[in-house]
Known about the structure:
Blueprint: E1 2-4, H1 5-8, H2 18-27, E2 31-37, E3 42-47, H3 58-69, E4 82-86, H4 87-90, E5 93-95, E6 103-110, H5 119-127, H6 135-147, E7 151-155, E8 164-168, E9 174-176, E10 182-184, E11 190-193, E12 198-201, E13 205-206, E14 219-225, H7 228-238, H8 243-248, H9 257-272, E15 275-278, E16 281-284, E17 294-297, H10 299-305, H11 311-320, E18 324-326, E19 333-337, H12 348-359, H13 379-393, E20 397-398, E21 404-405, H14 407-410, E22 434-435, H15 440-452, E23 460-465, E24 480-486, H16 490-504, E25 510-514, E26 520-530, E27 533-541, E28 558-563, H17 565-570, E29 586-595, H18 600-610, E30 615-624, E31 633-642, H19 651-669, E32 672-673
Parallel strand pairs: 4-15, 5-8, 20-23
Antiparallel strand pairs: 1-3, 2-3, 6-14, 6-15, 6-16, 7-14, 8-11, 9-10, 11-12, 12-13, 17-19, 18-19, 21-22, 23-24, 24-28, 25-26, 26-27, 27-28, 29-31, 29-32, 30-31
Amino acid sequence: MNVSWNWLADYVSLDLPAEELADRLTMSGLNLESIDVLQNDTVLDLEVTSNRPDCLGHIGVAREAGVLTARPITIPEAQPETSGGTTSDVTSVSIECEDLCPAYIARVIRGVKIGPSPDWMQDRLRAIGIAPVNNVVDATNYVLMECGQPLHAFDFNKLSGRRIVVRRAREGESLQAIDHREYRLDPEMCVIADDRHPVAIGGVMGGAETEISEETADLLIETANFQPLSIHHTARSLKLHSPSSYRFERKVNDRQLDWASRRCCELILQTAGGELLEGSVLAGTIREWEPAPITYRFSQTSRVLGIDVSADKVQAILTRLGVEQVGQAKSESADFRPPAWRRDLTREIDLIEEVARIHGYDQIPEDRPIPIVARTPSLEERIDERLRSVLTAAGFHEAITFSFVTEETRGIFTPHPDAPQLKITPAAGDYGDELRQSLVPGLIAARAENSRRGNVNAELFEIARAYLGAAPADPASQPRRLAFVGGRSFADMRGVIDAAAHSICPHSAVTVAPADVPQFQAGRGAELFLNGEFWGWLGELDPAAEGVKDLKLRDEVCVCEINLQPLHHFADLIGQARPVPEQPAISRDLNFVLDEKVTWSELEQVVRESGGAHLEAVEFVEQYRGKHIPAGKKSYVLSMLYRAGDRTLTNEEVDADQQAIVEACGKRLGAVLR
């Protein structure tokens, strides 16, 4: 927000250097970006935060300056002289979408003479970066930068039917704006129309057809209020941002609508002549903000700020800010009502902050040390950090995806087909209106986006919550999960999940069972169990599956998603030192042919139970179906490691243990050595 020093002096008397005022404004929350010294003026470039739209005009900044310097401010009364007929006799205004435009004020001026605006007005507009156009357009821009209320002037004689209709745009409508570009409109946008078609994009920009030209003689002056979210949607959709849309997105002060209209007409009469018709036409309702009183407990000042500010000074500061005291103050508290232009003041803590910034943040001493309390990370935090270390070491990158999914992206992975879908209102824009039941869709979408941008095979993981609606047998829940995706094989991903499990639970057993997830390739998906407790899913996505095929994945993708709660049950994060084995190990392999229905976890369990005391490890090597294997059968190759703690094992001892395994597998699983 560029602020002209000469302009500011119209409202508040300032006898201090611009640099000093800029410093005070900065210390009170209006940060100074730069100071430009011009030939006849000084311009302050202030950073105005989104909660302070009242400072998007010189009057708002003057209020701040007046409070900081204890000087009164003077605001023009704006009482233009009227003559001729009545506005309601020559025009009408109707609003068909009060949800988008709650109020619209129109005034008519006849017989203006278009020409350059006075030098003083041009100088002020140029100083803050606005190029002068003509005396009418300059007047609307002047009032915009004076009070922060956008206005627009129409060539009244170019309005079909000499009337205004505020409505939603219709399908297929378009408008050439005053920047002489064509914009296609949609029904979510508010337009200002005449009897035939749109003549302005409401709250954003006027149309070229009714803009002010040298031939213009009669004017219709628009002052309106628009719904902030509607303006934000329109400006973003059209990629058309203007000083007007910037202010409407942040909500204008309803109470200044009529003042801004009168002030603009007053300036036009001064600079362009003409006759202002009596009265105005108001459509809709000016819904003035009536905040509830806020109780300010004076003791809270010292509790929050750490300094003592007397009750009298608190009341004086708030009064200078335009905050009205309601009723009689008590010794310990008083009730206050914020002014109409300060919608950001809704709680007691907001008023305390106002006292702090006007009293001066620099007046709060830095003599109190910040207490530092040692805190041990919780079990959840330690588990998360351990998992991050394992996944990062395995080559995965952590991602943070949106908690929302669309109906289409939800279908990428549906491990909970029976859980009700939780929806949000309104939808989160393009990100969807459903809360995710799985982390996988977001990671797959992120992987696909990386691939489209040339970062092929992005391997990603995320630790976050999923959101499950209440089912007949299950309450609603928000389980914390770990999910990771990559272009690795099922076996490689199984290795990663084993490493993750053993980093948290060194003596855990991870087992698998076939998974009924429709997005997994047949025979390439599994349910995971940690020490017998259900843990999650692991599998390779089927590129042709419903919900996946639209992604047009360039390579195979394997995904894993686990619940973190079981890790809490079995966590053992205290490192256990074990001596390095002093005796050599003996490795043996076995190749079994088994029925198709026998799983690896069943085979592994039998091998471990029958392998004897010297069996140290059992590892899966490969699975085979095809030539030399009968129909309905498959082959498992496994590797075993034998070791004794006090001596070197003999081949005879290992052979005996090996034979016991073969006999047990044959008896219990029907396994035959290949």
